[in-house]
Predict the structure of Class I SAM-dependent methyltransferase.
Amino acid sequence: MKDTELVGVQKTLSPVLRAKALDNRLPDPILGDEYAERTMRRLDPDYDQRRFGTSQLGLSAVVRAKAHDDWARGFLADHPDAVVLHLGCGLDARVHRIDPPATVDWYDLDYPSVIELRQRFLPPREHYTLIGSSVTDLTWLERIPGGRPVLMIAEGLVPYLTEADLRRLLTSVVDAFPTGQIQFDTVPVWAWRTSKWDPTLRKYGTRFHCGFNDPASPADWHPRLEYVDEAPMNDSPVLMAKAPANVRRVYRLMNLLPGMKRSTRIVRFRF
Ligand SMILES: C[S@@+](CC[C@H](N)C(=O)[O-])C[C@H]1O[C@@H](n2cnc3c(N)ncnc32)[C@H](O)[C@@H]1O
């Protein structure tokens, strides 16, 4: 199977994977994900041959991945008995990058066709389960052991959900576990509203379905849910330290435009 057999929003996993693969070829990578490079090469052997193939402008997506990894490592260090729900996992190798102890049970969830690709390209491991389902069909949650701390990670997923579906997801996760951390990224309302004209999303035949001007606002949906903080993305110190000079220049210019520094908001909640 190739990514040509993926449809619509499933195809959005490719540019993120390509960014991670290209990052790994920097002399001092931000994420340093060898799995991404190997998987990308198998998915598309010519991934670096096209017009924008060698561009590193996707590096902010790599910064996002690093922020999620850092938060996840912190949570798992404090909760070695946790259950991890990695939702909309695409072909991201987070479980291998983080390499949690055997006391952690990790679940990667995405559409069945994406999970099938994962099975071909990424290795299995102990205490690691793949779930092929839409995240909005919450019956998958019944398969997860409760009574333990939960870490929910949704990288690059939430803008593709409707607000109603996101709300049902978050409140169901909070109701199902005694304590936990929920981390995801969102876009502001302007990015959601204009997404129907976004050339990349149009190419994949998809668009965003929700956005938040106050990314802390989902905390209002459940009395136990509390907003913690936000990680920087387009102006992140690691991007400015490690991206090639031409890429840093583009981001510096872009960040002068209103709203661009926070065109994606990486946020963390706890309960
Ligand atoms: C932008 S990609 C991000 C992939 C991965 N998290 C990463 O950062 O590399 C979005 C992913 O969300 C998945 N996705 C979108 N809507 C979904 C849904 N309703 N249920 C399950 N997965 C979904 C897509 O199939 C895709 O793999």
The longest strand covers residues 180-186. DSSP finds ten helices and seven strands in the chain. The CA atoms of residues 20 and 62 lie 6 Å apart. The mean pLDDT is 93.
